[in-house]
Amino acid sequence: MPFLLDESNEMYNSDNYYFYSKHRSKVNKVASVWLIDLKEEFSLCEDAIKKRYLQDDFKSDNKRFAYNLKRTSNKLAILGESNSNAKHYGLIIAKFNNDIEKRIWHGYPADYIANQQDKPNDSILKEMIKKNLITPREMNKIKRGLKI
C-alpha cells in the first residue's frame, strides 16, 4: 500500500495514521525530522500499539501517546534528528500522538533530551526492558535526558 504524506492512512485497527510533512523537511526549524522512511514510521507506530507501549495524556481525556524504539546490531537506531535551537543530534525514540475521538495517530522523533514531555513513563521503559528493547542502563539515561 502506498503511503500518503499529509493525508490519512488506514492502520490494522481501523484507526488512521497521518504523516506530517513538517517532520520530513528541515525547512521547519522547530520540528524534529524523521530519518526513516514512511513505511518504517508507520510500522513503528503499529508495533507500539500492539505491544501496548501506551501512555495516557494527563492533560486531556481524549489523547494518549505510544512510544517505540528500534534496536539494530545490539544498538539503538537513530530514527530522526533534532532541529531545535541550532542543536542537531540523533533521536532514538519515536513518539506517536493519538486523538482518541477522531481515531487519528501521528508521530515524530521525540527529543527526550530537550523536552521532558517526550520521555516515555517508567512503566513503558520497564516493559521495553522486559522485551529486551532497551537495557536498564539505557532506561536510566533516557529518564535523565542523556544521550545514549
Question: Secondary-structure map with pairings?
Answer:
Blueprint: E1 8-10, E2 16-18, E3 33-34, H1 38-50, E4 54-56, E5 63-68, E6 71-72, E7 75-76, E8 80-81, E9 90-91, E10 93-99, E11 104-110, H2 122-130, H3 136-144
Describe this structure in words.
The chain has helices at 38-50, 122-130, 136-144; strands spanning 8-10, 16-18, 33-34, 54-56, 63-68, 71-72, 75-76, 80-81, 90-91, 93-99, 104-110. The strands form three sheets. It has a six-stranded mixed β-sheet with strand order 1-2-11-10-5-4, covered by helices on one side. By secondary structure, the chain is an alpha+beta fold. 21% of the residues lie in helices and 26% in strands. The longest helix is centred in the first third of the chain and has 13 residues, at 38-50. The chain contains three helices and eleven strands, in the order βββαββββββββαα. It has one domain. It starts with 7 loop residues before the first strand and ends with a helix. Keywords: Plasmid.
